[in-house]
Design goal:
By secondary structure, the protein is an alpha/beta fold. Helices cover 43% and strands 22% of the residues. Bound molecules: iron/sulfur cluster.
Amino acid sequence: MKVFIENHSFHYEIENLTRVFFPNEKIEIIKARADDEVNGAHIITGRESADDKIRLYCSLEINGEHYENERKLALNSPDDEQERALAIILFDILRAYTGITPPWGILTGVRPIKLFRRLREELGESGASEYFKNKLLVSDEKIRLSALTERNEREILKTSTPDSFSLYVSIPFCPSRCSYCSFVSQSVEKSFKLIEPYAELLCREIEITGKIAKELSLRLQSVYIGGGTPTTLSAEQLRAVMNAVSRSFDMSGCREYTVEAGRPDTVTEEKLRMIKECGADRISINPQTLNDEILKKIGRRHTAREFFTAYETAVKCGFEHINTDLIAGLPDESLNSFKSTLDSIVSLEPKSITVHTLSMKRSSELTYRGAELLRRDIEAAEGMHSYCSELLPKNGYEPYYLYRQSRMVGNLENVGWSKKGSEGLYNVFIMDETHSVLGCGAGATTKLKEANGPYIERIFNYKYSYEYLNGFDEMIRRKDRLRAFYDEYGFKRK
Ligand code: SF4
């Protein structure tokens, strides 16, 4: 889809909003010139002065159909108001053409709850809700979800102090690659030889990072070992990584220690016992769906039965906090199939359930195969989230964190639901950018947060495991920045 931009600078917002309605298409943003040849499906968005007003206009040409819309504002209208007005007229046109009304309206950002919090602090909760409704066209259901999530999140945020941090350890390997995956994770078939040297270097990076954290008197609040699928490692390899964590960091104030045991086909009793022994108190076992046909279609090489077995083993090993991840909007999954999955999961009474929405990243195999996101899929995904909002509170779950990614089916959301007191702290800290997160391993990012202000600085590790192995010294050199950062932006060292 070509999108022409005439005389305004709101192209970022316009591109994001167009993508909500055409998630699978290449969006080409063109700064319009008088001699442009305009043909094929396209959108024109523009701004001009007319009769002492600013005139914002939009049109869409597609499949022989033509739509147009405009709005006039006072000449001195601030930029953000103009941007919103242009987004709204584009939204109206795209809604009329597609018949789709995305429930988040024109709100395209990744962290709607952070915005809701800021608005609540300025305008109170009802003012924030009004703003979401009237200025951003967010549906009543999503406003309720935002307000509730923000309230629950707020309680967790209060527990972070300026010297707090969390640790993220990346294991970028999986037993096979799921067709919807866009992470840097590599399948074991392709990278088996790299695992052992990777685990060794990872332990070294953890030790070095722990030393710096101790020097800076930082307090560890939560640990998250994710990926990928950490349980792709053998029990011995994973034990070595977890031992490196506990001997390198002061764990005495650590309030949550999660290991993702994402793929049930990698979970064994030996690994689970070892994970527990090494100090983790929260694990995530993720079926995504309990429909075997869909599991096969999306390239997950496990069955619903294997999920139940892994879950029972985790309970037997004494894990009290088990999280399960599900995905709404998987290709060909019906609303009824999702409902039956959620009903089964709820009957297990996990402490938390995270419901993601399928995100069609460009690099994922599904997109490559050209899977279409039809209105039917969007409606089904919306229905799935609505079912969560209906069923989960009745069973004692509340939403405690929420975020979005680009190209999600229907521009929907990922929501963490939990029983009271079992919220995933790391999830909230990372999403809210509450405190620093020190990252170790390939693809990990260290996010340094100013102790008493909003400034954030990122240090990137190499993305792929082979780069990590080759560029290890350079990555460790980058970690030196931690000391200088805390000297400049941190609290006073002891
Ligand atoms: S388990 Fe997760 S990280 Fe691994 S391939 Fe599947 S979606 Fe990607």
